């Protein structure tokens, strides 16, 4: 009787897509407007999905308040109102595409959840563009 | 050529989270504001997913009007504008967490659908908190 | 150069529509399912609109963090996870229709905002039913 | 490290549900209002999901601008502001139910994506009725 | 103490924009894809706003169930799953632009509401294009 | 018979709130996380409302495609994927609060619309925080 529990959150951040191994022209060609050297930004919406058995004493898979606190402490405090390229360790040497951000967030959250629980993370960069990891 | 068909509905209900085997202090500690003895409530949004083969005569997996009627007769009439703890058989002895509610609704709908059809139910307790059964 | 600033919040509450001056049959006829003596509930979504001049030093009409704190302290803490009929002074003797709730919330917020600022409150009882006060 | 990338788009079209092998009475009985001989219409919302490995040079599974262009050239230009029954080859002899439309769109997009990429298409006929292919 | 009450509904319809006093080339130039002779369609979302005094006995400006019934009987039954140009009296000789539709709906609803109540109608043709009458 | 026509668009930008006449401590105290010297960002959603008489020949107040083009040419191309503080003339010496941005956008659009048309602009900085100018 495995149930998935979902919790949403959001953070606002600046970023720039850039590959330092390429010259400016190639970066401009590949990343277009997203390569702007002065950065642009997004409201990132995050949906975290945790799957496990219902605990018969509480009726919870996990207390969603605990999940909310883990998300706030380890994801939102790290990335909210930040410049992903300049202000974070994670993206100093990793291009902050939606794909790379969602994998980074999954790796962060994975360390703070019981190993019996499965984890999937979805990240909306805009209402029309979003990513999910791991793929289902 | 299996296709999934989704139908949304909603119901408004009061509930209280409580484990009668625990004392008041433990209940308060575990369930927080959700343990309020006078109840609180939610607009529950429900997404039912039914999967099967397309019938070549109709082009339907199933007629979504039939699915809508099943949801209204067996779920909405039972839970809409009700106190889940006091007014329903299902939650007289089962804590009405989102996890337990989604399993109860799945069991109700499962009896009214052709066994060739697969069923998944998602239940939104708020826009930010939701659950799905069975887990995928 | 008057600008309106909007801030959203939400609270979850139980309520029952009932006029104690009427007999049960009349209450049932007028309020239908909303008259359930055991209560039902909603996720109430609130949009508060505050209008005033931009302060040239900050570029703000008012700091939206201050508005958020006023809403949390005076509205959400009072009504979130409560039974409006049983747990609040405001609706002990006032029928908690959306219309009456929005006027009550307006009166509460009005006391905590500078009189130079205009105030309008919108309250969503469901996605399809909502109210606004004062009418524009 | 497979990630899913999602892109949304929409098109507005007229259609009519009808099985030419049935008489008018049967069509009316099975398809109800959707059988109106003068057509009705929808804003179709489309979510395309593409799954693959992250390219370490770009940080992309695929450039979402390329996916957007494929969707516009091969789906939107074909179906937007069209009568699906009269103006398209695909539905001249195929009943344009949501189920059939989503399979047709999947087949179109499949031809324009690298075979290493997996593809899933979701189609919203209304906010409350939608379909997905292939079923997961 | 005037409060506005809002109720949402939707209908799905086909239409075509066309001015019979113009030649085909002018129609095509002015209305573009919306001039398709075989029609296209939309999910029209409707928000009806009714403003008046709160009745102290009910706590209602008007019973939203009554408003819902008026909208269903006089607007949805007339326009839902219809071809606006071919199936309705209102648009036989009136171009069914969003602007004209919203005025037509306002005129229909105005006849069925107490004259003490003010009325505003908003009509969404798509999520990005919508109209309101009367202008505020 | 004045009708309002609304059109939505969005742009993604980085910004920082800062008053150069204040020291760092005061800026930090007033603007909090929004004062981050490395910038953060948002998906700005824009709703433009234009009010006027319906032209009886077209049934339009104005052709929404023309409004869309004006918004793209004069607002989106100027601000999309930009750093508002560094990349734009408008905010070189003006703090890019939501209030100031909405007034700037109104002034830009006002120059490109017929003076018979009234104009209101709403700007969403996040789903929960938004502003409107002029106030109504």
Elements of chain A, N to C (H/E): EHEHEHHEE
CATH class of chain A: Alpha Beta
Helix fraction of chain A? 25-40%
In one word, what is the shape of chain A?
elongated
Q: Pairing-aware structural class of the strands and helices of chain A?
A: alpha+beta
Total E-strand runs of chain A: 5
Describe the oligomeric state of these chains in a short phrase: homohexamer
Output the strand order for the largest sheet of chain A: 3-1-2-4-5
Count of separate structural domains of chain A: 1
CATH architecture level-2 label of chain A? 2-Layer Sandwich
CATH superfamily of chain A: 6-pyruvoyl tetrahydropterin synthase/QueD
Give the rounded overall mean pLDDT of chain A.
98
Euclidean distance between termini CA atoms of chain A: 19 Å
Kindly identify the CATH topology of chain A.
Tetrahydropterin Synthase, Chain A
> Mind describing the biggest β-sheet of chain A?
5 strands, mixed
Could you write a compact summary of the structure shown?
Chain A contains four helices and five strands, in the order E-H-E-H-E-H-H-E-E. Chain A is α+β, with helices and mostly antiparallel strands.
């Amino acid at each position: 009787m495995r149930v998935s529990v979902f919790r949403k959150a959001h953070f606002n951040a600046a970023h720039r897509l850039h590959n330092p191994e390429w010259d400016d022209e190639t970066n401009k060609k590949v990343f277009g407007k997203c390569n702007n050297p002065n950065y642009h930004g997004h409201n990132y919406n995050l949906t975290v999905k945790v799957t496990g058995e219902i605990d018969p004493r509480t009726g919870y898979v996990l207390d969603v308040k605990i999940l909310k606190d883990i998300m706030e402490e380890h994801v939102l405090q790290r990335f909210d109102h930040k410049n992903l390229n300049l202000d974070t360790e994670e993206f100093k040497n990793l291009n902050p595409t939606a794909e790379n951000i969602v994998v980074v967030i999954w790796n962060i959250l994975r360390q703070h959840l019981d190993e019996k629980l499965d984890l999937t993370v979805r990240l909306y960069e805009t209402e029309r563009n979003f990513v999910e990891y791991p793929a289902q």
